Amino acid sequence: xxxxxxxxxxxxxxxxxxxxxxxxxxxxxxxxxxxxxxxxxxxxxxxxxxxxxxxxxxxxxxxxxxxxxxxxxxxxxxxxxxxxxxxxxxxxxxxxxxxxxxxxxxxxxxxxxxxxxxxxxxxxxxxxxxxxxxxxxxxxxxxxxxxxxxx
Length: 151
Fold this sequence. Notes:
The protein is α+β, with helices and mostly antiparallel strands.
C-alpha cells in the first residue's frame, strides 16, 4: 500500500517544484520607478563611480526578481547593468528588440529629468519568453538610468 502512495507524492512534489519559479511575483511599474529613483539619488549623493560599482555588484536593491537597473554613460554606452554584465560596453544605438525596434535610441531620445517610459519586446528572464517590456528611463546629468517591468 505504501508503494502506491509514493509515486503520486513524488509526482506532486516535482510539479510543485517546477512551478515555483513561474509563480514568483513579477516586478511592477511602481517598483521599476523606485529602483530608478534610488539609483538617481545614489548618483547625486555619491557620484557615478559609486553608482556603477553598486549596480554592477547587484547590491543596494538594484536587482530584484525581473527588475534591474542599468546605466548609460556620457558616451551613450552601458556602463553598469545589474542583471547582465556582458552588456557593459554596448552602445545604446546597438540595442534592438526582436521586432527590429531601436529601443536604445529611444532611451537616448526620450530620457529626461522627470523620466519617460519606453515600450518594446525582449526576452523575459523569468518566463524565458519574449514579452512586452516597459522601461522607465531618467536622465541625471550626463547619465541615463533605466529599469523596466514585463507586462
